[in-house]
Amino acid sequence: MLRIYLYGYLNQAQSSRRLERECGRNLELIWLTGRLKPDFKTIADFRKDNGSAIRKVCQQFVALCRNMNLLDGDVVAIDGSRFKAVNAKAKNYTRGKLRQKLGKIDKAIERYLGELDRADEVLEQTGTVLPEARMERTLRKLDHLQKEAVRYRSIEQRMDQTGETQVSLSDPDARSMATTARMPRIVGYNVQTVVEADHHLIVAHEVTMLGFDRDALSMMAAAAKDVMTTGQLTAIADKGYYKSEEIVASEDAGISVVVPKPMTSNAAARGQFDKADFAYDSEKDVYICPAGENLTYRFTGQQDGKAIRSYWSRACADCVIKDKCTTSKERRVRRWEKEGVLERVQERLDGDPTQLAVRSMTVEHPYGTIKLWMGATHFKMRRLKNVATEMALHVHAYNMTRVMNIMGIPAMIAAMKA
Known about the structure:
Blueprint: H1 2-10, H2 16-25, H3 27-33, H4 40-49, H5 51-67, E1 75-84, E2 92-94, H6 95-126, H7 132-162, E3 166-168, E4 175-177, E5 186-196, E6 202-208, H8 217-227, E7 233-236, H9 244-252, E8 255-258, H10 266-269, E9 279-281, E10 286-288, E11 294-303, E12 306-312, E13 333-336, H11 339-351, H12 355-374, H13 384-407, H14 409-417
Parallel strand pairs: 1-7, 7-8
Antiparallel strand pairs: 1-5, 2-3, 4-5, 5-6, 9-10, 10-11, 11-12, 12-13
Helix pairs in contact: 1-13, 2-3, 2-4, 5-13, 6-7, 8-9, 9-11, 13-14
């Protein structure tokens, strides 16, 4: 059965019904199966019931790549991409969406009830009765709207009881998430991958329900380090992964990360000096402002569980460029106790900005290939653990294709038999 699935995913045939047909007419599959012709239910049940084993096969092939010295590089790229789930947008609900729908229903019910009241007034004043068909249509619409309101309120109650922020009716684990600023939201999963830069093999992947990437850096970097043979690994990611705690956790694990910092400064947006314009002198423990004054350490406070050191100068009142710096009494600069790690990461990027180009050339191509194989459609399975199995088959098929292109089929078969 695994042969059938590997053949199918290598040849853009992931549906169990499609594989059932191919087993009866495709000579390659007839040879692979020894003329066995399993029905679609048997094929589908194998994928559903053996998810853990299928995911291990994907991991074992990555280990085989390591044994073949294909994972000797020291640079990996990390990225996430959104894949559609078996869940239409219309069957995904957030609190805001429910409030909007209930508001429209309440207005529609009020409108139809008003129409019935007016019909009663006309009947009392003139004795004229509205056409029966029109009355029945209005009553049917009212009944439908009231049933819809009950359904939406039951979903709202479920969210109150479970604490969920979203409810998806077809695939309960799917979540509405943004893709890019210019693209509409989808209901699906966020698939994280780590791709090594030399041979573009996917060394680790994870299917998540989170609509953002910022909590995945240390997890994916650590997964890559466990697989790669190098002693010093460099992990490159885009600005969506910039989170100070994640960067520090990766650096503490011995992984050199390269992540650009997003430009989110309110001061810079107002045309004033940004924190980056203040140079830090680690020996004196002072910040030097654009006017050349020293901002000295004053006290340490707590913010979101972090120890934050505050710096400012008494010279701000007489500064000639104060209007470009602050509208307050003095400009204050805050420094996290782990700020030195973030500065080291920024220096690493400033020293070689081309590393970001390596990231895009390395990690984005596998996503495009896999989505092309899928036919730009949704996953076939539902629930997180089943979708993870399906993604493992996609990743395994992609890695097999890469190894066949790198080493050739005979060499790969020999390595698998060894």
